[in-house]
Design a protein that fits this description.
Elements: E1 2-5, E2 8-10, H1 16-19, E3 21-25, E4 28-30, E5 43-45, E6 48-50, E7 63-70, E8 88-92, E9 110-112, E10 130-132, H2 176-179
Amino acid sequence: MEELIEQTITKQTWTPELKQVQEFYKCTFEQCDFQSAELLDLIFTNCEFKSCNLSNVSLKGTQLDHVVFNDCKMLGIHFNECNSFSFHVNFSNSVLDYSSFFERNIKKFQFDHCSLQHVDFERANLQQAVFRKANLLNARFIQSNLEGCDFRSSINIQLDPEANRMKKSKFGREQLSGLLLKYQLAID
């Protein structure tokens, strides 16, 4: 198994050379374009992606252990297909629209200044996750564990409190209408 340790990869596509690597440890990826690449059964540990395009990548069987994504475009990624062992990621200033965290354990994760439009969080464990200035337009929360989540600065949240576990979740006044949407109330 070929490894890449403490390397910075800049402005690359998913090249044949990178395809030979199975494990990335403490690597930084900057301005890379891996759109639609098949990143299958790989291991990323303590890595950071900065200003990368990862839209529609396949992560089937891939392990993401303490991976940070900053300023990345990540449309349509099925994080639910990642290896569940040691799955820990954080996102900042990234676009994750149309991605899926279905049944994923993402307890205490950080979504900081992210677009999460049409993201599937169905049956995910999001306990104590923080959605700081996140756009949750049409994000799907069904049978999700949202206990202790912080949604106070997020926008466009719509979810059914009866269909999710929400004890001690935090919301601002501006989010209340999104929690009552199913009742079709007129709130001024």
